[in-house]
Amino acid sequence: MNITAAQTSEANRQNLKFTHPTDITNRFLPLGSLHRDILEGNEGSKTMRIERTMMPGTREFSVNGRKVSARIMEDREFENGKLFEVTLDYFAQADSGAVCYMGEKVDQYKGGKIVGHEGAWMTGEHDAMPGILFPGHPKIGDKFHSENVPGIAVESDEVVGVDETVTVRAGTFRHCVKIKEVVAGEDPEFKYYAPGVGVVRELPHGGDVQLVSHK
Known about the structure:
By secondary structure, this protein is mainly beta.
């Protein structure tokens, strides 16, 4: 019986173990030491600003019958200077070193008022399991799902580079990992993760969003 890469990824996801889930020390996504990141740029004709701030406290999820605590990140997204979306993202680190995506609470804004919650999901709801946001030991060709909740949010990811040099407004970063993100029906997006920092550049179709501040 042949086992595909996707099946292997799913099996690994189902067998995730969490001993110290809030100690997020992954070299390329060290959220445990992050206070705040600010990224700015454009997506097509729109100017973009993203503010990512680690929040106090944790939230508990149930994974394979066990309670897992997750760290909380607030992600504020502005388009053309106006608040577009506020998301609370939940992350935990598995024993493999992978940073897992436990879910997201989404508020979408228009004219200063909440108008939707598209894409929101939580581990444990609708049979959702944690996604792999970033692998513990990335290698070119690694494939995984950061989100896999059919009908709500499905994203396929692949490591396509492990020694990239990236120059952005915050500086030059070497030995970056490049991830390709694919959502069905949309153009691929690429993200660069720098050692000791995290995301330093995002390349959506027709756009370029760069790290300008990291604390």
